[in-house]
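Dear colleagues,

For the upcoming journal club I promised to circulate an example of a predicted protein-ligand complex. I picked one with adenosine-5'-triphosphate because it came up in last month's discussion. The inputs are reproduced below in full, followed by the predicted structure.
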Amino acid sequence: MIKFIRSFSYAVNGIKASLHKQVNLKVQLVTAACIIATGFYFRITSVEWCIVLLTIALVLCLEMVNTAIESLVNLVTTEWKPLAGKVKDIAAGAVLVASVFAIFIGFIIFFKYLSLK
Ligand SMILES: Nc1ncnc2c1ncn2[C@@H]1O[C@H](COP(=O)(O)OP(=O)(O)OP(=O)(O)O)[C@@H](O)[C@H]1O
């Protein structure tokens, strides 16, 4: 149990560290809060909530993984190496792909509510 609590606190520290390092994550958190508020406003269905929350989780988690990969690359090398750049670009690309799909999903879910208003 103590081991579990310790692992949990390390994970919370990881969240704090990525929030401290990444402006992007803060922007994404604010965006997520706005989307959740919009969900409450339009009273979206349970299935829509699941899709919205999963999409938000996907983008936030990928942003944190991207931050971890960036830090790891910086730890491995301080030199300018094409492979290091490629690794960072691929990690950033993953966040971009998820974000673009999140925009589409948001549009699909909220469009009907917006057009009904
Ligand atoms: N060691 C390196 N070797 C080669 N290219 C690198 C290296 N470090 C960074 N780059 C290139 O510069 C880009 C920006 O790197 P950086 O580490 O500043 O990432 P970032 O996304 O701007 O980080 P942050 O979000 O912390 O500002 C990378 O995506 C990569 O193309």
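Two points we might discuss: The helical segments are 2-21, 23-42, 46-76, 82-116. The mean pLDDT is 95.

See you all on Thursday,
B. R.
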